[in-house]
Design brief:
With about 475 residues, the chain is an alpha/beta fold. Helices cover about 60% and strands about 10% of the residues. The protein has 3 domains: about 30-130, no CATH class; about 160-255; about 265-465, Rossmann fold (3-Layer(aba) Sandwich). It has a 6-stranded antiparallel barrel. The chain has a 4-stranded parallel sheet with strand order 8-7-9-10, sandwiched between helices. The radius of gyration is 69 Å and the shape is elongated.
């Protein structure tokens, strides 16, 4: 038993030695770790100091920046802590401590290896070292400085343009002032002229007013004198009107109911052109012949006394010379052709006097077979062309009355008819009354009345569509 105990005491204390060795090794490792940790904290303090230099005192007072630093300093999120310089430093210290391997790497070799790994290889989830951050910020600052220089150049150009605009504005104001002064002078001249003209106008008006008053007094005296003469003439006119009634009765008595017309020859045919329907007559410009005058042709033996006897032919003047006129033959009898010395006449033409006609009714002067509303005006134009006169009054001065077809008696419109219909009815009724009144007055005064056919025959007129 004693041998066994003695044998055990003689064995070396390996466990104790191993324990002491491990304890010493742990102590050395703890000391090295503490030394490295202390060194990392010192470098962290240095980098914090540099960070404060970069951030600046004024940035620390900024509530937004201060809140951001506090947030990332106290944040437990490793990714969030890496989003600031301080957080990045803390993250790098942690990584550096994890990277230290006492068997293969020291603190210096581990930090150099990490700096090389981070240098220039920035990724969204791997922040670069402080040196890389500073470098990148310097590059950003250089870019901003370039933009600042560009903006400064642009501002310099804008300032130059502004200076030019200010100079142009000054020149414009100078010119505007000169123009305004010139216009002011013109306005003064115009106002002065207007004042002078107004004074002259007032003086002229006063003179005219004075003259007007003088002439007005003179006119009043003349008017009184003329009123006296008018009274005398009115009395004389009444006396003449009474005498006119007596003369009308005497004329009617002398005419003895003779309502015929007297057609005198104006000239004769002096030459006929064979095959060309051209005739020359013995009257010309000295006899008041005009181009367009129509002539009726009668036998050389004389114009028939019967006014209803139609002429043997009709002519229209196409050319006029002093003593002779050239005529176109517009109508000719097949049984009794025109010969030299045949007589020519137009009731409305006379070399010594102008007859007076009254024309009423509707006429067909175009050969359509239907009287037209404008026919009366065309008949009047024939009379004017021949040299005679027209009037609307049937009196002792009237030589002939020409009556065409009477206006159609209008139908009386209903009481509720349109105003325009009633107006047309009134005009038609007035035209019919006028026609009947002219006819009645002409018959009462025994003035020759010609219907359409007799009128066209004695005028030598042929409607255009009826020309052979």
């Amino acid at each position: 038993m004693a041998r066994v105990v003695a044998q055990r005491r003689s064995n070396p204390p390996y466990l104790l030695i191993l324990f002491v060795f491990l304890f010493l090794l742990s102590t050395v490792a703890a000391v090295m770790f503490y030394i490295n940790w202390d060194k990392a904290n010192k470098e962290l303090a240095t980098e914090r100091t540099d960070t404060k230099k970069i951030v600046g005192t004024s940035d620390e007072t900024d509530p937004n920046i201060k809140a951001l630093i506090d947030n990332y300093t106290t944040s437990k999120d490793p990714v969030a802590m890496r989003r600031t310089v301080v957080g990045e430093l803390k993250y790098q210290v942690q990584r550096l401590a994890e990277a230290i391997d006492f068997q293969t790497k020291t603190y210096d070799t581990a930090k150099a290896s990490m700096d090389k790994m981070y240098e220039g290889n920035y990724q969204p989830n791997d922040r670069p070292s402080l040196l890389a951050l500073v470098k990148r910020e310097k590059e950003a600052a250089a870019t901003l400085q370039t933009r600042v220089d560009e903006l400064a150049a642009e501002r310099k150009a804008v300032d130059a343009e502004k200076t030019k605009l200010v100079a142009d504005m000054a020149d414009l104001k100078t010119k505007q002032k000169a123009d305004l002064d010139a216009l002011s002078k013109q306005l003064e001249a115009v106002q002065k002229k207007a004042t002078d003209d107004q004074a002259a106008y007032i003086a002229a008006m006063e003179k005219v007013t004075k003259e007007h008053k003088a002439k007005l007094a003179e006119y009043e005296a003349n008017i009184n004198d003329k009123l006296s003469k008018i009274k005398t003439l009115t009395d004389k006119n009444t006396e003449l009107a009474n005498q006119n009634v007596v003369l009308k009765d005497e004329i009617t008595r002398l005419r003895g109911g003779n309502t015929g017309l007297v057609l005198k020859a104006d000239g004769k045919i002096v030459k006929l052109v064979d095959g060309q329907k051209i005739a020359y007559v013995s009257i010309g410009a000295k006899d008041n012949v005009r181009v367009g005058l129509t002539l009726a042709v009668f036998p050389f033996t004389g114009i028939p006394e019967d006014p209803n006897t139609p002429p043997k032919g009709k002519l229209r003047v196409v050319n006029v010379s002093p003593d002779v006129s050239e005529c176109a033959i517009t109508d000719e009898s097949d049984k009794d052709p025109l010969v030299v010395d045949d007589l020519v006449a137009n009731l409305a033409h006379d070399t010594s006097r102008a007859y007076t006609f009254v024309v009423e009714g509707m006429f067909d002067l175009r050969g359509t077979g239907t009287p037209s509303p404008t026919g009366a005006d065309e008949a009047r134009e024939l009379i004017r062309q021949a040299g005679s006169k027209l009037t609307d009054t049937v009196d002792i001065h009237c030589d002939y009355v020409v009556l065409g077809n009477p206006p159609t008696p209008p139908s009386k419109p209903a009481d509720d008819a349109q105003p325009q219909v009633k107006k047309i009815y009134a005009e038609q009724l007035k035209a019919l009354d006028r026609y009947n009144e002219v006819k009645r007055e002409a018959e009462g005064m025994r003035i020759p009345i010609l219907n359409t056919n007799r009128f066209l025959n004695v005028m030598g007129y042929v409607a255009p569509k009826a020309v052979k």
